[in-house]
Model the fold of this input.
Amino acid sequence: MTAVTVKRDTASTVQCMKAMSDPTRLLIMKLVQKKAYCVCQFVDMFEMSQPAISQHLRKLKMAGLVREERRGQWRFFSMNDEFGARDLVLSILNQLDDEDETLRAIQSKEKAVSCD
Amino acid sequence: MTAVTVKRDTASTVQCMKAMSDPTRLLIMKLVQKKAYCVCQFVDMFEMSQPAISQHLRKLKMAGLVREERRGQWRFFSMNDEFGARDLVLSILNQLDDEDETLRAIQSKEKAVSCD
DNA sequence: TCATTATATAAGTCTTTGGTTATATAATTC
DNA sequence: GAATTATATAACCAAAGACTTATATAATGA
Done:
């Protein structure tokens, strides 16, 4: 049973694609598809500065692809299931190899957060 | 009968998405999916300068999304069906609305080429 | 061969992007 | 309430993008 894809206009398609057309953001989307992560986890996994990660997350959030949730001193990000272009996002993520080396390397660096 | 999608790595996915993450190039891909167009047709349809169109086409060609064919003094561009990330391209184009206003407006400006 | 037509390329400009460092804010813990 | 921890934001910078104008190339046709 395949859902009928809601067709989208050019502008919103381009906006969504631009948000995901970066290796860091594409992989963040791949990760949050499965569960929520907090900023500091991404910092560890991507071995990237905290401001750099924050800015990538802001872009994804502004574009509507992720949602933010506060838990104590942490902010968790997860996939926004109410996003209009959700089908587009999923079809892109779906053809991204789960065995991809870059993805694997990043996943292997995941650390638990105290509140978990 | 749905074809099995070949999973792709992060780098090639991002490269393909970047090539399509522009309204002009996304719509060019939508157009060449159906048939080949020459540069001068795109210039008319997108109401954009010839060098600008040439440069967009070069990007698409360099990324492997389109192929070029000479017919007399014209150069026709069509979708490259041998492209590795073809499934990704098609799934993106597939969810782009055929009734999209921008697309319609561009299609309405199509003119015939002498050699047609 | 010369003018015309179709296209590419080069060089310049302006904007956007993705990082940096420094600092602000807000919750937690001592 | 002071120090610590998590995060955001601001200001800056270098590189990439998307145009522009000017010019080169290549095929066509007189």
Q: What stands out?
A: The mean pLDDT of chain A is 94. The domain at 22-107 of chain A is CATH 1.10.10.10 (Arc Repressor Mutant, subunit A). The two ends of chain A are 35 Å apart (CA to CA). Helices of chain A lie at 10-20, 23-32, 39-46, 50-62, 86-94, 101-107.
